Amino acid sequence: MATHHLSRSAYERLKAEFHDLTTRGRIEVANKIEVARLMGDLSENGDYHAAKDEQGHMEGRIRHLEHLLDPINHQIIEATDSETIQPGTIVTIVYEGDDDDQAERYLIGHPEEKTAELEVMSPHSPLGAALLGKGPDDWVEYQAPNGMLKVRVLEVESA
Q1: Lesser CB count within 10 Å: N end or C end of the chain?
Q2: Are 121 and 152 contained in the same domain?
Q3: What integer is the mean pLDDT of 89-110?
Q4: Model confidence pTM above 0.90
């Protein structure tokens, strides 16, 4: 089983979300279900079915967070000043044949790290795995679904 690499901020955010869902969230959904039950016939009660569906989705998210937050399943990564790509670094790459102004920036990390500013690339994805340990001006080849692709690392920075 792969260890999930999480930044301290993502870990704290996920922990807060878990706490919110297991307290306020569960109470809120239970109240919605209770109100819907009072409306009568459950077989044709859309509010009841919607509340039960919401409860199912929320419990799935709770189980997912529980798994991620289990100390056995995650590792907190701290920002480093390394010039090599590793989980928790931001990488700027350009595909072979493209100009440098077409460069793309990614945070190498867990999908839960996603922010509005950066897309996240998993270190377990084909490109993410190929980039690990590389540095500026390195060329990296990786197997994509449509064949071999090549990218050049332009910049590596601490997240």
Answers
A1: N
A2: yes
A3: 93
A4: no
Judged by DSSP in three states, 24 sits in helix
For 52, residues 6+ apart whose C-beta sits below 8 A from its C-beta are: 33
- Of 51, 53, 56, nearest to 31 (Cα)? 51
**Count of CB atoms within 10 A of residue 71's CB?**
7
Q: Is 45 helix (H, G, I), strand (E, B) or coil?
A: coil
Do both 59 and 84 map to the same domain?
no
Residue 136's pLDDT is 95
DSSP codes joined into one string, 46-65: HHHHHHHHHHHHHHHHHHHH
Based on the domain organization, do 103 and 137 belong to the same domain? Answer: yes
For 114, the token pair is 């996603």
The enclosing domain of 50 has a CATH number of 1.10.287.180
Number of domains in the chain: 2
Give tens-digit pLDDT for 18-70: 999 999 999 999 999 999 888 877 777 888 999 999 999 999 999 999 999 99
